From TrEMBL:
SUPFAM superfamilies tied to this protein: Domain of the SRP/SRP receptor G-proteins, P-loop containing nucleoside triphosphate hydrolases
Annotated protein name in UniProt: Signal recognition particle receptor FtsY
Catalytic activity field: GTP + H2O = GDP + phosphate + H(+)
GO CC annotations on file: cytoplasm; plasma membrane
Keyword line: Cell membrane, Cytoplasm, GTP-binding, Hydrolase, Membrane, Nucleotide-binding, Receptor
EC numbers: 3.6.5.4
Binding residues annotated for GTP, in chain numbering: 105-112, 187-191, 251-254
Organism: Tardiphaga robiniae
Membrane topology of the entry: Peripheral membrane protein
């Protein structure tokens, strides 16, 4: 979390500087509130949240001087309210063996890295983990997952590049069941060049997994790169429709000016947020907590 507040410095200081500029030597009026709302929109918080914060700032303060700290406190409070509703841990239901987690998202969002970090987290909790290299489209993705498997000392089910990802998923769920694994993490392809094909493939992966275990996948995690800002909204839309996303992981929150997008997403889709990625290392994954994130954003 120290890494997060450091990482979100770029988000919070942009916000803080703009707010400080606005409130000095002025009394609060309608124009100032509109300016504050603009600053919040530029911080990617979304129209609803920005409007709500601006209204809360104005409440009972018209024609009075207001400090930047007062504004920040309101921002932190309102953001925390939004995030409290979605900050939920990923619960591994041990009645499912394996508990199958499908990891989806566009290429480069941090899927493979997140799987590596999750494998480490789950192993540390004493769970028997298995990985499946379901992004069969890219040789590099398969290799990268194997490296994470070695690092975590967990087996990786992988096929040749270009092989069918659905049949790989079938093989992996069967292997994890036969090997008594607690958790199976399945990587998937995320090429956006052909979105329709990708979504058809993802639907097929889900369908085939159900042939082995009708209750699976037990979690569908969408990995989102914070640095893409507003684009994250359309990614949620597309993947949720296709794969039934059950929770989010937001990566690259270290050093982005666009961390506010998580607030806009949470307000709009209300999907559980489980983890955040704050670096490339194996330990750079943190459970998501509303208060810390809100404080980090408000600065
Ligand atoms: P995938 O294509 O979705 O599997 O994405 P990768 O896991 O290969 O990640 C893409 C790049 O983002 C890699 O260089 C990762 O090291 C990097 N990355 C992933 N998560 C984070 C994060 O939380 N912070 C930072 N700074 N980099 C990350």
């Amino acid at each position: 979390w120290r890494r997060l507040s450091g990482g979100l410095k770029r988000t919070s200081s942009a916000l803080g500087t703009a707010v400080a500029d606005l409130v000095t030597k002025r009394k609060l009026d309608r124009a100032m509130l509109e300016d504050i709302e603009d600053v919040l929109l530029r911080a990617d918080l979304g129209t609803e949240v920005a409007a709500r914060i601006s209204a809360a700032v104005g409440h009972g303060r018209y024609d009075k001087a207001i400090s930047a700290d007062e504004v920040k406190t309101v921002v932190a409070t309102e953001v925390e309210k939004v995030l409290s509703a979605v900050a939920k841990p990923l619960v591994i239901d041990t009645t499912h063996k394996p508990f199958v987690i499908l990891v989806v998202g566009v290429n480069g969002s941090g899927k493979t890295t997140t799987i590596g970090k999750l494998a480490s987290t789950f192993s540390a909790e004493g769970r028997k983990v298995m990985l499946a290299a379901g992004d069969t489209f890219r040789a590099a993705a398969i290799e990268q997952l194997k490296v994470w498997g070695e690092r975590n000392k967990v087996p990786v089910i992988a096929g040749a590049q270009g092989s069918d990802s659905a049949s790989l998923a079938f093989t992996a769920v069967t292997a994890a069941r036969d090997d008594n694994r607690d958790v199976l993490l399945i990587d998937t392809a995320g090429r956006l060049q052909n979105k329709t094909e990708l979504m058809v493939e993802l639907e097929k992966v889900v369908r085939v997994i159900k042939k082995v275990d009708a209750t699976a996948p037990h979690a569908v995690l969408l990995v989102l790169d914070a640095t893409v800002g507003q684009n994250a909204l359309s990614q949620v839309e597309a993947f949720h429709r296709t794969a039934g996303v059950t929770g989010l992981v937001m990566t690259k929150l270290d050093g982005t000016a666009r961390g506010g997008i998580l607030v806009a997403l949470s307000e709009k889709y209300k999907l559980p947020v489980h983890f955040i990625g704050v670096g490339e290392g194996i330990d750079d994954l943190a459970p998501f907590t509303a208060r810390d994130f809100a404080q980090a954003i408000a600065g």
